[in-house]
């Protein structure tokens, strides 16, 4: 039974890609981009709050949702390519789209000798690639964190002239069990406020 280390997931969100989407953040990333927006999801060994969900369980959640697709974030999705490739294949079989955020460039992923990386990439309709560069931070491009990152349309499921890709970034706040979670791309001020900074 294939499982995925999930740091957080949402059955439905409008802040992590086009349309209503299921979003899955994996735990563990080999990259250490300064200013990473999810530093708590970098360690592979973190146990607190991490759920090891089976691919079948994730697909059941997706099938029960109204989401048009799934967005994979992290952490680093391609560091968990085996489980996420199986999930993405299942999502595509359900008629859902797949969007992936990666700190690796598309060229590096295509040059990888890992067949699981190739499987996951083959399922992606959309890929936001490249390491986050805090010195080139942007809020002008939807779903893009820094100017060096690119949004790649890997299939014809979405088009660049779709008005959803020209909208503004926004955040969603949720209160569950006394814990506030944030999804989307908030301004620095919003992040500081939520983290108790000034």
Summarize this, please?
With 198 residues, the chain is α/β, with parallel strands linked by helices. Helices cover 23% and strands 26% of the residues. The protein has helices spanning 55-64, 81-93, 106-111, 115-123, 188-194, and strands at residues 3-13, 21-26, 51-54, 69-74, 97-101, 126-129, 150-153, 171-176, 179-184.
Task: Give an overview of the whole structure.
The structure is a single chain. The chain has 198 residues and is an alpha/beta fold. Helices cover 23% and strands 26% of the residues. The chain has helices spanning 55-64, 81-93, 106-111, 115-123, 188-194, and strands at residues 3-13, 21-26, 51-54, 69-74, 97-101, 126-129, 150-153, 171-176, 179-184. The protein has a 7-stranded mixed β-sheet. Strand 4 (69-74), helix 2 (81-93) and strand 5 (97-101) form a beta-alpha-beta unit. Helix 1 (55-64) packs parallel to helix 2 and helix 2 runs parallel beside helix 4 (115-123). The longest helix has 13 residues, at 81-93. The radius of gyration is 16 Å and the shape is globular.
Strand tally is 9
The share of residues in helices is: 10-25%
**Major sheet summary line:** 7 strands, mixed
- Mean model confidence by pLDDT: 87
First-last Cα distance: 45 Å
What is Rg? 16 Å
Low-confidence stretches: 187-195
Give the SSE string. EEEHEHEHHEEEEH
Structural class computed from helices and strand pairing = alpha/beta
- Dominant shape: globular
The strands making up the biggest β-sheet line up spatially as 3-1-2-4-5-6-7
- Number of helical runs? 5
Strand content: 25-35%
